[in-house]
Design a protein that fits this description.
With 131 residues, the protein is α/β, with parallel strands linked by helices. The protein folds into 2 domains: 4-37, no CATH class; 50-129, Nucleotidyltransferase, domain 5. The chain has 3 helices and 7 strands; from the N terminus they run αββββαβαββ. It has helices at 19-37, 80-90, 105-117; strands spanning 50-51, 61-65, 71-73, 76-78, 94-99, 122-125, 128-129. The strands form 2 sheets. It has a 5-stranded mixed beta sheet, covered by helices on one side. A two-stranded parallel ribbon has the order 1-7. α3 links the parallel β5 and β6 (122-125). α2 packs across α3.
């Protein structure tokens, strides 16, 4: 038997089609780009309690209280005096207290007292929508 007549004389080499690999890599990069924009902006870890009430229509000042009872204006850790000065300078009429559900009740009341002394008329406590 002579099998040499079935062998190809030209050897073109091994060719790998990269189109599918490039498509998958593009989809993964696109997915990661979209997901990264949906990440929460606030870096302060606050776990909100649940409530069924609707949100307010006024754009108020937000002050965060973490689980250890520290106060934050934006991302900056603040003292009682800094909060009072901030609220007085901004002439804030509405305040939202974004407090962790595990924070001591007295810390939130203390913040509300500072806000009232600084001229804030409306104080709201942030919650998550829930049952």
């Amino acid at each position: 038997m002579n099998f040499r007549k079935y062998l190809k004389i030209e050897d073109r080499g091994f060719v790998v089609d990269m189109t599918a690999l490039v498509d998958i890599a593009f989809i993964i990069i696109l997915f990661l780009g979209i997901v990264s924009t949906l990440a929460p902006i606030s870096s302060i870890n606050v776990e909100l309690p649940k409530a069924t009430a609707e949100k307010t229509s006024v754009e108020p000042v937000k002050i965060f209280v973490d689980k250890d009872g520290n106060y934050y204006i934006g991302r900056k850790k603040s003292t009682d005096e800094e909060i009072a000065k901030f609220l007085t300078e901004r002439k804030a009429k509405a305040l939202v207290v974004v407090a962790d559900r595990r924070v001591e009740y007295g810390k939130v009341v203390h913040l509300m007292d500072i806000a009232k002394r600084s001229g804030v008329e409306e104080i709201n406590i942030a919650t998550r929508r829930g049952e």
